[in-house]
Amino acid sequence: MTCTIVVKIGTSSLTQSETGNLALSTLATLVETLTDLRRNGNRVVLVSSGAMGVGRDRLGLTERPRAIALKQAVAAVGQGRLIRVYDDLFTTLKQPIAQVLLTRGDLVQRSGYVNAYNTFQQLLKLGVIPIVNENDTVAVDELRFGDNDTLSALVASLVEADWLFMLTDVESLYSADPRSNPHAKPIHLVTNIQQLQEFQVEVGSSRSSWGTGGMITKIEAARIATSSGVRTVITDGKHPTNLKKILSGDAIGTQFEPQSRPVNSRRHWIANVLVPMGKLYLDPGAIKAIKEGGKSLLAAGIIRVEGEFNPNDSVQLCDNESQEFARGLVNYSSSEMQKIKGCHSEQIPEILGYYGAETVIHRDNLVIV
Ligand SMILES: Nc1ncnc2c1ncn2[C@@H]1O[C@H](COP(=O)(O)OP(=O)(O)O)[C@@H](O)[C@H]1O
Ligand SMILES: N[C@@H](CCC(=O)OP(=O)(O)O)C(=O)O
């Protein structure tokens, strides 16, 4: 059976740790593997990091740049080189590719999200392998994905993938960071992300010298992807041929099972793509009505409003321990919300001087997270 596969490869697998040069044999094997998968009728997307790593190698920088403008310049140098190498390798096998550079800002407008969806569909229909990276050179802080693990999960949801593979420098997720804990044990199967708490998995903050997110962002990416119904695997990037073995059923790496009832595309967009602009703290009655009753949020249930936002912006809904439990699109601005919080819906026209929506967040625009 053919399927849609997203493969993310991190800087740690693409470059040699000692020299920072491209790991050519890994890249060549990856390109051969993806081309084979494509020829067997699968739809394949590659999310490739490496712009910064290749850029710094080309410029002979020995330290990780800190200033944003320098990082953006280094990525601009590296991205062109990286895609050139991919194009040369894929062209040898007569496999067409496309470069897709995205920022979160491109997806936060629903129309932009749908447009990106259509472009990916068209590329896949043409038999092209899109090679995706964050558009590091122009991305501004508030509208960055920040790391390619998150980007790969959002791309996997966008293209309605069956599989997301995150290739990295460890064979799997371990019970603790294997760099600092030699007794850490590999974890093979995660049926539900909450299990990681039960297993008391320790996620260290260490990462490869040019990597960005470490294991934390991979787990968050697995949460996003599995909630959209995408089976997710964390595995070693040095052996890309393992992808075929995993697809044939071998238990290599850590596999995260997809949720049996995935959220739909619009709810996924509200929960994972939009950047929340504020927080609403709710009373226990409102929390119960939303969590257990699937109800809309009314002004009466709001205790406190934080942040500055406009109608249709996304906000986080929190309990009194500041724990987020849902996200939604608001019908009122933060200044309006400050005036109507705690009030009954019938009082809203009198307080604001005009008739607005009865609900603060309609249940169709609310997602439990
Ligand atoms: N529980 C854990 N299991 C496995 N690896 C972990 C864990 N906690 C932290 N890590 C670290 O995450 C690193 C991989 O992340 P990163 O360097 O960002 O890779 P990439 O460049 O492939 O995205 C590993 O080298 C490992 O040290
Ligand atoms: N967009 C950046 C990659 C950011 C990133 O997440 O890197 P990594 O942790 O190596 O996957 C680049 O191309 O250098």
TrEMBL record:
E.C. no: 2.7.2.11
Question: Would the keyword Methyltransferase be found if you checked this record's keyword annotation?
Answer: no
Q: Which residues bind substrate?
A: S49, D136, N148
The UniProt record lists the PUA domain at 278-361
The positions annotated for binding ATP are: K8, T168, D169, T212, G213, G214, M215, I216, T217, K218
Named from the GO MF annotations, one term is: glutamate 5-kinase activity
List, alphabetically, the InterPro entries matched: AceGlu_kinase-like_sf, Asp/Glu/Uridylate_kinase, G5K_ProB, Glu/AcGlu_kinase, Glu_5kinase, Glu_5kinase/COase_Synthase, Glutamate_5-kinase_CS, PUA
What are the recorded Gene Ontology BP terms? L-proline biosynthetic process
Catalysed reaction equations from the record: L-glutamate + ATP = L-glutamyl 5-phosphate + ADP
One GO cellular component, as annotated: cytosol
Member of which family? Answer: Belongs to the glutamate 5-kinase family.
Which HAMAP family does this chain map to? Answer: ProB
What PANTHER family does the annotation carry?
A: GLUTAMATE 5-KINASE (PTHR43654)
Q: What role does this protein play?
A: Catalyzes the transfer of a phosphate group to glutamate to form L-glutamate 5-phosphate.
**Protein name (record):** Glutamate 5-kinase
- Species this chain originates from: Limnospira maxima CS-328
Q: What is the lineage of its organism?
A: Bacteria, Bacillati, Cyanobacteriota, Cyanophyceae, Oscillatoriophycideae
